Amino acid sequence: MLPYYLTVQHRGEHEIVIERSRFIAHVARTETEEEAQTFIAEIKKKHKDATHNCSAYLIGERNEIQKALDDGEPSGTAGVPILEVLKKKNLKDTTVVVTRYFGGIKLGAGGLIRAYSKSTSEGIEATGIVERKLMRVVSTKVDYTWLGKLENELRASIYTIKEIEYLDQVIIHIFAEEEKKQDYIDWMTELTNGQAIIQEGDILYLEQKISKS
């Protein structure tokens, strides 16, 4: 598993108009090629009356699977520019379909490349980019008398609360960087005067938004 990587936040859609042609960028996180192809097919069905539904996707930790489709536009003027934007933004597990409704004015090869690149870039920014970073889950079990103090301390700290379980005792699950987990354990032990039961849990991805949506 990669220690961290960038991908899109969720599904999104963004439209621009260039020389009377409508370019609608559809963006989705897709973790397999099957998901990518299903998303492309869904958009093509939704916009079956469009002039073109051009697409590209990158799948895998090392971009093992990548594909660009021009869907009737001149070769290399649509799918490849979409794919290049994904690469330039260092995104993984991402699919983009740009739907074009022709407005009557031909753009030429250079104009098409710029249009599909611009549509893709703006569509991704509108959708939002997130960083997914591998973190260790650490659980702290304490009596309820400690909850208020610990929650306040944690919310003012570098650590991110994953969830709080309210059982016979309260269990606070947090995300910690692997190299800082012992610092957290020592800090929590000191805060609770050694009354906390602290356990290391799974390694999971923590997702944080780094771009506007």
TrEMBL record:
Q: Which GO terms describe its biological process?
A: regulation of translational initiation
Task: Choose one Gene Ontology CC annotation of this protein and give it.
Answer: cytoplasm
Q: Where in the numbering of this chain does the UPF0029 domain appear?
A: 141-195
Domain named Impact N-terminal: which ranges?
20-122
Q: Which Pfam families match?
A: DUF1949, Impact_N
**Entry-linked Gene3D superfamilies:** Impact, N-terminal domain
Provide the coiled-coil residue spans.
none
In terms of NCBIfam families, this protein maps to: IMPACT_YIGZ (TIGR00257)
Q: Which family does it belong to?
A: Belongs to the IMPACT family.
Which protein are we looking at? YigZ family protein
Naturally occurring in which organism (per UniProt): Peribacillus asahii
